[in-house]
Amino acid sequence: MIQLATYSATESALLEKAQWLMGFTLGEIARQLHINVPSDLKRDKGWVGNLIETALGAKAGSKPEQDFAHLKIELKTIPVDTQGMPLETTFVSLAPLTQNNGITWQTSHVRHKLQRVLWIPVEGTRTIPLATRRIGQPVLWSPTPEQERQLQQDWEELMESIVLGRLNEINATLGEVMQLRPKGRNNRSRAEAVNQFGEKTQSLPLGFYLRKTFTAEILHRFLQSQNEIKPL
């Protein structure tokens, strides 16, 4: 019997715990942790992620570090459809709208978060009651050189728009695998920013998000590797 909500000293111990969750429903895990299941996610958008974080013993919460900082692993739950395809983009981190001169891809928060990710797919089809949605097979991932190149290229192009104050030109169509989108409680949320004249201004908070096509590729490659017939 795996002990949930406990510290994992090693990567293999964390992965074993994540693999143990596979096949359980969210309701079953919530009962083990004595956590109430909301009727839906309208007012509890982050409930699924919080449940998995609790189950796996993640400690970072809202801190600007990986969920398992001692292992340098970030945790991401990802809602998928019946074919295992991601249903949503994946939030990575807030974009620095000020004090961003000198930041490079190598020193960026986005790269830091994406160096090692434990993906936990969860049934996300809305017609399935929340409590009966099942947890899928975990994927422990680090970007390939090509994926890192794609991420770096998008990050550099998007950050250039921010640094040059071209916030009005930023929209969700920019970026091959990663995009910038508003990230706030509502459309009245504001953050300090700098306009194209170098003057302080106010903007919607922006966040970096991975596109569904990119996360679908991560999951697909993993399943493909699992199904490969290994030579004798």
Automatic annotation (TrEMBL):
Its main location: cytoplasm. One of its GO terms (biological process) is DNA modification. The keyword Ubl conjugation does not apply. Transmembrane segments: none annotated. Keywords: Cytoplasm, DNA damage, DNA repair, Endonuclease, Hydrolase, Nuclease. One of its GO terms (molecular function) is DNA binding. The keyword Cytoplasm applies. Belongs to the MutH family. This is DNA mismatch repair protein MutH. The lineage of its organism: Bacteria, Pseudomonadati, Pseudomonadota, Gammaproteobacteria, Pasteurellales. The gene is mutH.
